[in-house]
Amino acid sequence: MSKLVRMVLFMVLLCTLGSCGSNNTLDFDNPDVDLFVKQLKAGTYQTQSPEGFVEVPNFKSEDIPKLLSYSTDLTLIQSFPLPPISPYVGGEIRLGECMLWIVESIRIGDYASLGCHLIRVNADNYEAQYFLTDEEVIDASVHYKRWWENRSYPKTRWSIDPCFDDPLCGTGYQWW
After folding, report:
1. Burial (0-12, 13-18, 19+ Cβ within 10 Å), 82
2. Which residues pair with 76 in a beta bridge?
3. Lower CB count within 10 Å: N or C terminus of the chain?
């Protein structure tokens, strides 16, 4: 009987050490939004692109609803994987703002910006004093959610809207 107990304990130990699978591994080309957010919050995100850079994984349009569900999360994260061409080192940033940055990057098909901050359009420069407040990030999130919802409706000549495909149109916010 003690041999059976030792065998069970050994199996539990192996599962614990081996994590019983790859639940903590994020697939760069087919990422899981929840796992990505969990790793960002824990400061453990290290998934590399095929080029060897730690970058935001290849999220697709299908991921936008899930990304938007985190867009009002104002948790400060220690780092965010900026584009490899970015001259900025990073620093603390709100998780929700990062999720909006990913959505914007999907929308335009390229990096939304080299940093990951929304700023006011009339900013004299790109100092932190021009970054959006928590309330303004929540407002930007509302605009992105409305934009995504409205994309499900057909665009007709009777519903011409100059802001149809620009969530930040008229908000006074832009990406930096």
Report:
1. buried
2. 94
3. N
Instruction: Give pTM, 2 decimals.
Output: 0.83
The two structure tokens encoding residue 39: 């790793």
The tokens describing 107, both together, are: 């929308």
Burial 120-151 (b: 16+ CB within 10 A, else e): beeeeeeeeebbbeeebbebbbebbbebbeee
Other Cβ atoms less than 10 A from the Cβ of 2: the count is 6
Helix and strand numbers (H, E) in the chain are 5, 4
Domains of the chain, by residue range, sit at 24-175
User: How far lies 75's CA from each of 16, 40, 87, 160, in Å?
Assistant: 29, 10, 24, 37
DSSP assignment, residue 37? H
What is the residue whose two structure tokens read 């938007």?
A: 68
Q: What is the pLDDT of residues 20-64, one digit of tens each?
A: 444 588 999 999 999 999 999 999 999 999 999 999 999 999 999
The C-alpha atoms of residue 114 and residue 92 are separated, in whole angstroms, by: 15
Q: Which residues share a beta bridge with 94?
A: 76
d(C-alpha 97, C-alpha 70), whole Å: 9
